[in-house]
Write a structure and sequence with these properties.
Number of helices: 12
CATH superfamily of the largest domain: Aspartate/ornithine carbamoyltransferase
Number of domains: 2
Shape: globular
Largest sheet: 5 strands, parallel
CATH architecture of the largest domain: 3-Layer(aba) Sandwich
Strand content: 5-15%
Order of helices and strands: HEHEHEHEHEHEHEHEHHEHH
CATH topology of the largest domain: Rossmann fold
Length: 308
């Protein structure tokens, strides 16, 4: 049985296989063909951190696959209120067919998966956001940008940046990450990605100057500077990220036909300008929709690996 906790746990072939399955199911969905890939299966959706896109995409996705989603907030279950994670996992996984967790610490997801009798999906942690990267790469493929791919990630060295490192190191494209001093990616995660890059042929570069990262890029992407739980740092972060807004001037450093991605929510005038968000280069809503299709691919693929 496989879990979907980080992209570093997966091979290039496995990632591409899931995405091919996601594309197939997406085409069926667009043609109003809804196959019961997961008939009468229940997906436990455990949310310690709220989300628009994660809840809607997983709940819609499992329904379209023939199953049902069970929304469980931190107010609904005993998670973090005295009951050990091992007990929570042992109980829930005996009653459902799959679980998705959106939480703070990656260790919580790892612990839940250790004791789970069903596949577990990381819906987001403070360290990684693998389901978002599957949607991002699906969007890149659909835009025919996966050949000679150069991705520039501009902003905070957060969970999204870490998953970009994981994906790049496995697939083998070029990734440039630009962060302000003091907001760099986790060095252990970077080191691990650099080791994997030796096998895949990926090229990873780290900058503090965003213009150097964007120059000649085929994909430019960013994330909010103030994530959930960091509101008390807002003013300091806005000051520290001066010069990191992805605006028309910055996009002009990229390839002429470069695309722009953002996992959303986006804050216009901070990490990205309104002009870029609403430009022809922006694929943010295709990207958001692809959360639905990529996650359906993940769920169906995991179900097929239950006996492995």
């Amino acid at each position: 049985m496989k879990h979907f906790l980080t992209l570093k746990d997966y091979s290039k072939d496995e990632i591409l296989e899931i995405l091919e399955l996601a594309r197939k199911i997406k085409i069926e969905t667009k043609n109003k063909i809804f196959k019961d890939y997961l008939p009468k299966q229940t997906l436990a959706m455990i949310f310690e951190k709220s989300s628009t896109r994660t809840r809607v995409s997983f709940e819609t996705g499992i329904y379209q696959l023939g199953g049902i989603g069970l929304f469980l907030s931190s107010n609904d279950i005993q998670l973090g209120r005295g009951e050990p994670m091992s007990d929570t996992s042992s109980v829930i996984s005996r009653m459902v067919d799959m679980a998705m967790i959106r939480t703070t610490a990656q260790a919580n997801i790892e612990e839940f998966a250790k004791y789970s009798k069903v596949p577990v999906i990381n819906g987001l942690s403070d360290e990684y956001h693998p389901v978002q990267l599957m949607a991002d790469y699906l969007t890149i493929q659909e835009c025919n940008k996966d050949e000679n791919l150069i991705v520039a990630y501009i902003g905070d060295g957060n969970n999204l940046a870490h998953s970009w490192l994981n994906l790049c190191a496995k697939i083998g494209f070029e990734l440039r990450i630009a962060t302000p001093i003091g907001y760099e990616v986790n060095q252990d995660i970077l080191k691990e990605a650099l080791n994997d890059a030796k096998v895949s042929g990926a090229k990873i570069s780290i900058y503090n100057d965003p213009k150097l990262a964007v120059k000649g890029a085929s994909v430019v992407t960013t994330d909010t500077w103030v994530s959930m739980g960091q509101e008390d740092e807002k003013e300091k972060r806005i000051k520290d990220f001066t010069g990191y807004i992805v605006d028309n001037t910055m996009m002009q450093e990229a390839q002429n036909d470069a695309i722009f991605l953002h996992c959303l929510p986006a804050y216009r005038g901070y990490e990205v300008s309104a002009e870029v968000l609403e430009s022809k280069a922006s694929k943010i809503f295709d990207e958001a929709e692809n959360r639905l299709h990529a996650q359906k691919g993940i769920m169906v693929w995991l179900d097929s690996k239950r006996n492995d």
